[in-house]
């Protein structure tokens, strides 16, 4: 029994020829097996192309006259020959992007690590970061920086002016924390801060665009009016509205949104009293940092990889001070609160319910001797600064007029005793 | 009185840092010894099944941090202890001097029902080392002054006396637990709420 699906293309019945006519460029199914030998992918080398051309010739001779296959094969043969010609030209020109041997497919310009992108990469309206023109991915050779995502045409590569945002961010190590530090156009000598295009003020309508992050003026090619949450405005005004920023600033902000760069406690401690969510986040983080100490030294927790399994942003539980811009945005949206309370639930289940060792490492308030185990990270706990004893806050303040820790008093009296009568004490 | 329930004895080892608390426990439970010193953080425990007076019991031995900086991780494990083992280093007199503090601290934190009668055991460790700084007589004198605490001279390195000491510890702990149970049994005969005189016949027990 012959397969009807295969028969359809071999016999030139009116139905099949019609359907092929519609999808002219499609590979006839009878030739599917030859697909690899015919070098249909766009990255083929000249040698592969030569082989494909020879194979194509053979197939043309084998196929029936006026058949769909022959039509397709001849068309493909022409295409292959054109590609071979292009490939030969590329090999002779060392600057051509397709020339892999010259190492042009990977270049370093202004700190960018630019990689040649495959022609067929599916991109929806990509624009060149240098000339702002559309990058026609299928036709034009284009490059993208693997660090900051800067993308540009091959032809624009030589004239890139923007430093790689990754380099800038890493070197500076922090955000610009002045709210829009604007100095005026005269300070920039009436030139775009990036590409130095003149931005004259004498005309009625000026093209100068202010970047809210850097406080500098840019031309329309370097400032596309993109919006971004500006860190300085968040830190000082708790203003999370996105402002127009230059493309360079946008890349810098995007690259560092997840880095814990903001020490809110130092920059603006008042924020914690004014923003309730932030105050809550701070309290939860303090609790988590205390729990982390228990989990770090617990052998069963480390066997379960409890810390690694549940924490994707370690800075949140490493310390209480540092925040990333994303943390603040998530605080505002309430996402961070849920995330942190989920973490607390997981951790406290281990410490207070599942793990005997962690429970043993808890405290019992020696003032009230309540059986309930108290942990230093609990909200109701008071921790003595000197001897680290943990007591209930209310027990400590109720039973003490001069606010002295009972264990510290014992230690004091013992040392006095030992210093006073060193010999008698040993008996 | 036969205990059907599995008996768990909670034993706490206390003493200054580097006297050999962890080594003693490791020698007893795993029969292993290492010359490397590694400070214990907070507290940790190992368990061992032993037979005391024909009874199978599980010993839960809590090894603790002698270094004060690690005591910030609490002392809740003191609670419900059945025996406390005090350890000092026979070559380091200071570790002997602080025994009083460890005992006091334990009694305050654990707050046992009868502090005077709570079982302690004293171990003078590192007897394989020279020179000796605390004599056996001095240690025994201290034990006498504390209501006759049993005293053993041990070496965790050589495994000397470790087995015997822990057997004594298990015995004392078991005695302590039994006395605690007896305390509850001093109440007069309990009234049994289940009616044993109920006729076992399947018939209707209703009088009408």
From TrEMBL, chain A:
UniProt keyword annotations, A-Z: Metal-binding, Repeat, Zinc, Zinc-finger
Domain Phorbol-ester/DAG-type stretches: 111-164
Source superkingdom: Eukaryota
Matches recorded under Pfam families: C1_1, RH_dom
Any one GO molecular-function label of the UniProt entry: zinc ion binding
Residue ranges with Low complexity bias: 12-26
Keyword DNA damage among UniProt keywords: no
Keyword Transcription regulation: no
Gene3D superfamilies: 3.30.60.20
Record region (Disordered): 1-26
Similarity field: Belongs to the DEF8 family.
Protein name: Phorbol-ester/DAG-type domain-containing protein
Organism: Brassicogethes aeneus
Automatic annotation (TrEMBL), chain B:
UniProt keywords, alphabetically: GTP-binding, Lipoprotein, Nucleotide-binding, Prenylation
Gene3D superfamilies reported for this sequence: P-loop containing nucleotide triphosphate hydrolases
SMART domains: RAB (SM00175), RAN (SM00176), RAS (SM00173), RHO (SM00174)
Assigned GO CC terms: late endosome membrane; lysosome; phagocytic vesicle
Cellular localization per UniProt: Late endosome membrane
GO MF terms, alphabetically ordered: GTP binding; GTPase activity
InterPro entries reported for this sequence: P-loop_NTPase (IPR027417), Small_GTP-bd (IPR005225), Small_GTPase (IPR001806)
Pfam family, one: Ras
GO BP terms in the entry: endosome to lysosome transport; phagosome-lysosome fusion
Family: Belongs to the small GTPase superfamily. Rab family.
NCBIfam families registered for this protein in UniProt: small_GTP
Stated name of the protein: Ras-related protein Rab-7a
Organism: Brassicogethes aeneus
